């Protein structure tokens, strides 16, 4: 139990630390990769809480997603290297207030409520994966299928929004944006 | 065990708070999306902690986490598509300039 | 003890692969060459670019090596010779190999140089192509084994190897593995002739030695993954199980080098087109066929 508490604390602190780095650094690449390592720490937190499938899935997905976010930052932001030292934020006091109050309210609820008896053991990873698969394709089949259709719709929508508008009047426009 | 539950909940709360700060204070669309990602990560940490310590027999908790992960990926995809379209139209994705519905 | 044996096997396989690579490049078979080349790298001057991003510049080769070793840690050499027999081993291999992308992007951005950066972003283009083709054949393999545990996956191939059961999956996984390790013909990120070395360009001295070792180890890890998923792992008639694993792994790794030696480099625009238009429908077809075979054949 103490080993688990130690690892949960370590990975939690790592996630929070990298999360703070995301908004403190002025280099955009460091920001994106700090978010990546924060998500990896959250994935390791899942592993420390004995949900192996979710932890491995989180680690895998976030590596790819955050790297793609990194290239989008380099494409769209003015100072990806961060050497200019500009401060790109607005309404600072309001947002710090909102963030701190949200965190404080959540921590207060966590500390003050009575959670009841906490489960000591869970089944091992193989049984969990099997049970999750049974749940996914048995009771929650509707949710699974809806998620699949939603993913397809989002893919089509994102592609449709992102392709350049073709010039309908001339033939060269059509071939140029091929 | 309850101590570990509270540790995880506090971590989730702080991650959520950092995400709220980021989403509200940043002017660039990509940075706002990073704030939203942190908020969703905080929510996922709470969900997994509740599953593990309070209801380990109900696998719909893990199902919820899968759905939230899917939502994270999808909103990033659609958000970046919108960012590309905006960048092509206006030349920047600064949200301070996005005040009008027109254009 | 197990850790030491597996790491030693990994290092030995990387050494043999370096010898074969030298043989293909120069025509001479010199078994001690990797040691001398490694020592020469350590002795050379370590040039650091003018204004690198220090964190990324230092971390990228180390991360690549850590990823390769972590991937090997969940793959079995024999029924009891596995560092960590995770409950979701097949997925963990994929998760560890996703960090190759992070390492290459760091290596591309860190040195603050044009060629390195182009190489790094080209690898992202390759990732879009190969990442589905790595996961879907693993799904079909796990379907046959009815488990994600790597030892169970090898155990399910006791009667018939997966390369015979799912040949389509094997071809797709092999191609995607070569694209992941950015070996020729998919080596645009570090194109030797074209990009001045790409992501390898700005590294010298100790860091280059670590980077080269990491790339070879990555090929060995991927070859070991191919062996575990498709070639029946440690099953074989006469020799002990670990010997069969090593033989199969080295055969796959050397074949990857040979295929790269004889094929021209592929642009990632063409790679993306072929993988998405042809590869993903074939991977889905593979899953359907495997599902039908599992349900129908007793």
Would you mind describing this structure in some detail?
Chain B: Belongs to the complex I subunit 4L family. The complex is a heterotrimer of chains A (178), B (103) and C (298). Chain A has 178 residues and is mainly alpha-helical. In chain A, 74% of the residues lie in helices and 0% in strands. In chain A, helix 1 runs antiparallel to helix 2. Chain A is globular and about 65 Å long. Chain A starts with a helix and ends with a helix. With 103 residues, chain B is mainly α. The N and C termini of chain B lie far apart (55 Å). The mean pLDDT of chain B is 90. The longest helix of chain C is centred in the middle third of the chain and has 32 residues. The mean pLDDT of chain C is 88. Chains A and B meet through helix 1, helix 2, helix 3, helix 4 and helix 5 of A and helix 1, helix 2 and helix 3 of B.
Give the termini distance of chain A in whole angstroms.
60 Å
Number of helices of chain B: 3
Backbone CA Rg of chain A: 22 Å
Spatial separation of the terminal alpha carbons of chain B:
55 Å
Estimated radius of gyration of chain B: 17 Å
Order of helices and strands of chain A: HHHHHHH
Mean residue pLDDT of chain A: 86
Structural class of chain B: mainly alpha
Low-pLDDT segments, ≥5 res of chain A: 173-178
Q: Please give the number of β-strands of chain B.
A: 0
**Proportion of residues in extended strands of chain B:** under 5%
The portion of residues assigned to helices of chain B is over 70%
Give the assembly state of these chains.
Answer: heterotrimer
Enzyme class (chain B): translocase
GO cellular component, one term (chain B): NADH dehydrogenase complex
EC number (chain B): 7.1.1.-
GO biological process, one term (chain B): ATP synthesis coupled electron transport
Notable characteristics:
heterotrimer; A: 178 residues; mainly alpha; disordered C terminus; B: 103 residues; Helix Hairpins; 3 helices
Quick overview:
Chain A is mainly alpha-helical and 178 residues long.
Task: Draw up the topology in text.
The complex is a heterotrimer of chains A (178), B (103) and C (298).
Chain A: H1 2-24, H2 28-48, H3 52-76, H4 92-112, H5 125-137, H6 141-162, H7 171-176
Helix pairs in contact in A: 1-2, 2-3
Chain B: H1 2-25, H2 29-54, H3 60-90
Helix pairs in contact in B: 1-2, 2-3
Chain C: H1 2-26, H2 33-43, H3 54-73, H4 89-109, H5 114-145, H6 150-155, H7 162-165, H8 167-180, H9 206-230, H10 241-262, H11 268-296
Main location (chain B): membrane
Subunit structure (chain B): NDH-1 is composed of 14 different subunits. Subunits NuoA, H, J, K, L, M, N constitute the membrane sector of the complex.
Subcellular location (chain B): Cell membrane; Membrane
């Amino acid at each position: 139990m103490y080993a688990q508490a130690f690892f949960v604390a370590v990975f939690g602190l790592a996630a929070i630390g990298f999360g703070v780095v995301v908004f403190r650094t002025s280099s955009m690449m460091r920001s994106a990769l700090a978010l990546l390592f924060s998500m990896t720490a959250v994935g390791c937190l899942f592993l420390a809480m004995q949900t192996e499938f979710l932890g491995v899935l989180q680690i895998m997905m976030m590596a790819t997603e955050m790297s793609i976010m990194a290239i989008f930052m380099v494409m769209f932001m003015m100072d990806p290297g961060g050497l200019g030292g500009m401060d790109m934020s607005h309404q600072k006091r309001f947002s710090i207030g909102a963030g701190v109050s949200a965190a404080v309210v959540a921590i207060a609820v966590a500390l003050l409520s009575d959670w009841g008896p906490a489960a000591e053991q869970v089944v091992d990873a193989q049984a969990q994966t099997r049970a999750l698969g049974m749940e996914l394709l048995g009771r929650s089949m509707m949710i699974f299928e809806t998620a699949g259709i939603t993913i397809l719709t989002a893919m089509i929508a994102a592609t449709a929004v992102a392709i350049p508008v073709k010039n309908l009047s001339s033939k060269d426009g059509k071939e140029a944006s091929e | 065990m309850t101590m570990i539950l509270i540790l995880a909940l506090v971590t989730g709360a702080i991650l959520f708070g950092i995400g709220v700060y980021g989403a509200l204070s940043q002017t660039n669309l990509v940075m706002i999306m990073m704030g939203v990602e942190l908020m969703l990560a905080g929510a996922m940490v709470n969900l997994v902690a509740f599953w593990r310590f309070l209801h380990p027999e109900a696998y719909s908790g893990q199902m919820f986490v899968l759905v939230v992960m899917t939502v994270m990926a999808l909103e990033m995809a659609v958000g970046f598509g919108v960012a590309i379209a905006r960048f092509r139209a206006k030349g920047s994705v600064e949200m301070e300039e996005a005040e009008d519905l027109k254009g | 003890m197990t850790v030491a044996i597996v790491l030693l096997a990994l290092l030995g396989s990387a050494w043999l692969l370096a010898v074969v690579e030298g043989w293909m490049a120069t025509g001479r078979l010199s078994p001690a060459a990797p040691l001398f080349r490694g020592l020469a790298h350590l002795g050379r001057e370590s040039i650091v670019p003018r204004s690198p991003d220090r964190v990324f510049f230092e971390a990228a080769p180390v991360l690549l090596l850590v990823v390769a070793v972590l991937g090997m840690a969940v793959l079995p050499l024999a029924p009891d010779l596995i560092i960590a027999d995770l409950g979701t081993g097949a997925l963990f291999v994929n998760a560890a190999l996703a960090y190759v992308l992070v390492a290459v992007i760091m290596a591309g951005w860190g040195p603050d140089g044009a060629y390195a950066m182009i190489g790094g972003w080209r690898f992202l283009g390759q990732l879009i192509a190969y990442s589905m083709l790595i996961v879907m054949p693993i799904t079909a393999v796990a379907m046959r084994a009815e488990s994600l545990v790597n030892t169970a996956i090898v155990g399910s191939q006791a009667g018939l190897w997966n390369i015979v059961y799912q040949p389509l999956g094997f071809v797709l996984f092999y191609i995607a593995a070569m694209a992941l390790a950015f070996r020729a013909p998919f080596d645009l990120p570090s194109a030797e002739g074209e990009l001045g070395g790409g992501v390898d360009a700005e590294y010298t001295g100790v860091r280059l030695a670590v980077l080269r070792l990491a790339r070879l180890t990555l090929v060995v890890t991927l070859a070991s993954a191919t062996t575990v998923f498709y070639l029946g792992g440690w099953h074989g008639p006469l020799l002990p199980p670990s010997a069969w694993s090593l033989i199969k792994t080295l055969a796959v790794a050397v074949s990857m080098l040979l295929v790269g030696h004889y094929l021209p480099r592929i642009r990632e625009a063409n790679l993306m087109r072929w993988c998405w238009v042809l590869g993903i429908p074939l991977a889905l077809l593979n899953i359907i066929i495997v599902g039908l075979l599992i349900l129908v054949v007793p």
